[in-house]
Amino acid sequence: MLGKIRRYQQLAQKLEPNSHQRESLLKTVDQYLNSFQNSLGTSSTYHPDLPAGRNKEALCIKPFPENIESIIETIQNDIIVPGLNIASPGFLGFIPGSGLYAAALGDYIAATTNRFVGFRFTAPGATRLETELIQWLCGLVGYTKYAGGNLSSGGSLANFIAIVAAREHFNIPSQDYYRLVIYLTSQTHHSVIKALRIAGLSDAYLHFIPVDDHFRMDPVALRQEIKIDKQKRLIPWLVVATLGTTNTGSVDPIAEIVDVASSYQLWVHADAAYGGCFILCKSIKKKLLAVAKADSITLDPHKGLFIPFGLGVVLTREKEHLKQAYLYDDVDYLPELHDTAYETSAASLSPELSRHFRGLRLWIPLKLYGVNIFSAALNEKILLARFFYNELLKLENIEIACKPELSIVTFRYCPTHGNANRFNTQLFELIKRRGRVFLSTTRLNQKVFLRMACLNFRTHLENIVLALEELQTAIRFLLKS
Ligand SMILES: *Cc1c(COP(=O)(O)O)cnc(C)c1O
Known about the structure:
Distance between the termini: 78 Å
Strand order of the largest sheet: 4-10-9-8-7-5-6
Number of strands: 14
Bound molecules: pyridoxal-5'-phosphate
Number of helices: 17
Shape: globular
């Protein structure tokens, strides 16, 4: 038996490279990443998928080892290339991500050191860092020291965590769920409706409040509808305000909404996944100030703070509300938390237990560059959207959905004859296939619109000028064909 143990040990030891081997692995990875980063400005924003089956052999897992060069080659050619190049400065679709390199270093450190960050006891330093980071975010949105939060994997999970906290806080028996009313608009992100469903609230009533001509919730209608629902013996419960809608980047009037909601003791959730970080911009701050009165807020640093996908934030005005819903119960096989009033274990604030040390991927870039640089980059994005909008106004037959409030411009070309929806869909396809910039589409009142969403820190004036050129080239091409 001892012989066997030693033999297995010898094989298992291959899992631990020595410093020379580590250096050589890192060098290969770094070479690829350097070439990736250096070509971001010139590489295409879109690559069609590769023929099915092309990489099947390279992807299959084998009992024996393969070398890092061929593994990286597969990743480089077959895995990363096809699809949308979201890290590219020409990527102006959906809500762009960016992928700060410094954040990747945070991931690298987190994964290599592999602290267990679910409990304060196991990683007091990590809990401290994440607590300070969350408190900084609380300060940004105007929350006090009673607030708390959790770093989630993204905005959808943040919305879910908040909705469950709101459900638990109201403490409504499940047989009454069908009487609960949620107030939202046609522009609310679909992840909110999905979160309600997975929170067991499919039977609750979704009350879609009308929007104004800028696609913002009408707070007067909100008040009227709450009154009527109360008379019907329904239970008005939750208002979801969107600070930066996906379609048009519109900001619901949060001050008026919290005003209405508080007179009926409703929970206000502010979905600020896209728009929240613009609170760092002086010109936008005023519009977002009242978010401090919302009961819960979703932010998405993997959008507005440019870090790679995998980090959302949920904040609650009272940390207790998160704890009420997620408190870690003592279990026999796990240690005690050793929490303090200020430093709460992540496991007591979210559904997760073991998880990635997400705080580092945000904390390192913020420390390394300082917050002012992030403000500057976001200010630039706001102005780039205004510039794009101003230039569109000079073009003929362009209909603009509404004046941009943040960094999204939603517009369509109106051909003098023929089907406008088809024309705009073709415009989208043509611009996509040329691969110099990527715009996305949406529908507003059954009409197909194009969207220019600018949020990558790498996107600068020349990319926006190029987008305008690409748009005009595509329009001319389609009008001729
Ligand atoms: C992006 C977004 C979400 C979803 O966030 P993920 O990070 O993609 O899960 C929710 N709401 C709004 C307004 C968003 O922009």
